[in-house]
Every structure is written in structure tokens, then in C-alpha cells.
Amino acid sequence: MRAYQLGRLLVAALAVAGLALVGAGVAGLPVRPPQPDGTAAGHRTVPAPRLPPLPRATPVEVRIPAIDLQAPLMSVAADAAGALEVPPLDRPDAAGWYRLGVSPGETGNAVLVGHVDSPDGPAVFFDLGRLRPGDTIEIVRNDARLVRFAVHGVEAYRKNRFPTDLVYGPGDAAGLRLITCGGRFDQDTGAYADNVIVFATRAA
Amino acid sequence: MKATRVLIPAAGGVALGALLLPGIALADTTVSPSTTPVGGTVVLTATGCNPKSGDAIFRVTGPDRDQNVRSTTAAAGGGLSAELFTAGFTLGTYTVAATCGDGTPDGSATLTVTPIGGAEAGGRDGDDGVGTLTTGATLLATALGGAVILARRRRHAVTAGTH
After folding, report:
1. Are strands B105-114 and B35-37 parallel, antiparallel or unpaired?
2. Domain A59-202, CATH 1.10.150.20 — does that match?
3. Ramachandran angles phi, psi of A107, nearest 5°
4. Contacts of B130 in chain A (CB under 8 A)
5. What is the pLDDT of residues B27-56, one digit of tens each?
6. To the nearest whole angstrom, how far is the Cα of B133 from the nearest Cα of chain A?
7. What angle do CA B78, B25, B13 make, to 5 degrees?
8. Domains and CATH numbers, chain B
9. Which residue from B72, B107, B109, B140 has the least number of CB within 10 angstroms?
């Protein structure tokens, strides 16, 4: 009878511990970032209004009303291995402007990069995959100009098939490219498989 | 009156020529691809240079760089070509200006050297809760199995007690 009581205690303890771990596991499941639905025009050439190019100026803030985003911008370049820098993880609310390229409003493609998430949850560019053609992106520059861009595509690319030319390549008009991570999260490498890229052209 | 009739079309022609010539000159030098991740190799071609006039010189200028590259081969489509290896290049945009062997400028083109690959812009840690969930489910299953065994033993004990 004593063994039976011990068995009951053991079963109860196992059940309590199991329930606690299941609860913690469910709470710890990350929220998946939204992915592009593939209906966007992507990188295909779109007619852009003829606007005179702006002189170079440092962008200081990005605003995307469609996903309720307003974030400060910091300058980034490349790391020692030649890969694009991203803002530090202790600034998950900030996006980076690739300062070795053009600034938003100049002729060519300006590039912004931001984290999709951090150890604490969603980060600045978590919702980029929700953007659709026609959505507006606003960039505030340090010369007090506000430059508006219209999204014409949102696409996901494998990181090992990154479209370098479409992102950094030259263009006749002022373009904007926003980059973050997306796709499948690889537990082994601790990284996402894809980059989500927003393609936009200056609208005003 | 005659002079006016001759001069106006002539002036128009000169103006049109002045507008078109720079464009033609720019098209004589090409860089393929025009955008490359740092460390990539691009092909510089001066399409307007006659190989019989000697090697073409490509002057590459940009961030922290001013170097001359001599053509090494005759281009398949005409002109002269050279390969340019971009390892060690500072990221940014470069101008490539070609001069033919006879000293004639052959226009210019731009080359953009970019970061390598995509961006590592995900920052969540590797623990996605699945491991914890699995361990919890295993404990629950074990507890259930133990409960079943205990219930059977108790039933046996009760049955034995009544006989």
C-alpha cells in the first residue's frame, strides 16, 4: 500500500511537471513573421513620376503607415567579411541605412536594413511581409526633406540567391530597397533561410 | 535669306550631335556585370578600340582607388577586354574610363561593389519552445502510463481482496 501511495505521488509530480513544461513551451513558441504573398510586382520595372533627383543627405527616420511603423535610422556599412551590417540587437527598434550607397531621393537605389525579430520578440521590420503595392514609405532626411516612395513589390529570396543587382544596382530613378529576414528558421544555424525585400520607387 | 536657310539646319544638327555624342561615347565602355559583391570578377570592355592600335587602358577610380588595368584579350563582339578582380575593394561606386592604344578616349561606365550576399537580419535565439514542449509532453505521457499501471494494480488488489 505504501508503494501504491509513492506511485501516486510520482505520477502526480510527473503530470504537474509535464503540464508546466508544455505551458512554457507553448508560451515560448515564436510568432512567425508575415511572408510576402507573391502577388506583388516585385522588381519588375514600374513607371515612376519624373522627379528631379535630390542631393545627398543622411536619412534619419523611416515611416510606413500601413504597418504602423516609425523608426529611427542609423548608418551601416559592411562587416570585415564583406556582409551587410545590421543595427545591433540591443537596438531592435532601429533600422540601418547602407551609407556606401545612395541616400533616399538620389538617383539609384537606397538600401535600408532592419531586424525581423530579436530575442525579445518582433523587431523593427517584422511586418515588412505585409506590405502591398501602393503602400507608402516615408523617409525623413537631415536636410528636413520628406521623401515619399510607393511600394511596387515585396518578395522573398534565398540568402544564397540574393539579387545583388536588383538591390544595389544602378537605376534611372530614385528607388528604395528594404531588407529583412524571413522564411524558414533553421534551428541548427540559428538563422532564417530567406531575405524579404521591399521594392519601392520615389513618388513625391 | 539663303544663309539663314543653311545655318539653321546646320546649327540644329550641331546641337543634336552635341547632345547625342556623350551618350555614344558612354556606350563604348562596358562593365559586366555592373554590380558585383566584393571579391567578384567583372569584365571591362572597350568596344570602340581597335586591337591593332595596341592595348587599351582602363582607369578605375573610386573610393580609395585609382588603378590602371591593361586589356588582355580581344572582345568577342569587337574591342578589347580585361578582367577585374574586386577582392579588397572598398564598397561603393567606381568609374571605369577606357583609353584605346592610340590614345583615343573610349568613354566610361560605372561599377558598383556591394556587400556579399543577403543580410543576417534575424535576431531571435535558437530556442523556439519546441524542445520544452516535447519534454513536457513526454512527462505527461509517462504520468498517464503510470496512472494506468497504478489503476490496474489497484483493481487487481481489490479483486483479490473480494475473493
Report:
1. parallel
2. no
3. -70, 130
4. 25, 29
5. 599 999 999 999 999 999 999 999 999 999
6. 4
7. 120
8. 22-114 (2.60.40.1930)
9. B72
